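Progress report, Aim 2. The chain analyzed during this reporting quarter is listed below.
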Amino acid sequence: MALKYSRQREVIKENLMHREDHPTADMVYMDVRETFPNISLGTVYRNLQLLTDLGEIQKLNVGDGVDHFDAKTFPHYHFICSECGSVIDLQMDNIDTIKDIAGVNFDGQIAGHITYFYGVCGNCCKKTSGLQPGVSPV
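Predicted structure tokens for the chain:
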């Protein structure tokens, strides 16, 4: 059965495609309300889940108790700032070989991995201690 077109779902997806901040459902809801003032938070949640199930967006669980969403569905890595909580895409080479390393002492078959990097983002480094981003304080 073909999925019925929904302008609300399309606006939710477009909102995500133009963001780099990996928003929560509440953040998407606040933005989408500008176009659809009567949209419910439940409608936003249902459409985000549907888009996730369809593989058109991805849901991230970064450890803060709420789901974040990303329109980039290709394999890539994320950095989570322990100070401000921002979720940032990392520009780096693919580390898929980690599956081979993990599989050395594992008798099953590893299909993939999710890797998050944690620390303090460049903006927070500048604000809190004058540390230079990317430079170890040692």
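The chain has five helices and five strands. The longest strand covers residues 77-81. These observations will guide the mutagenesis work planned for the next reporting period.
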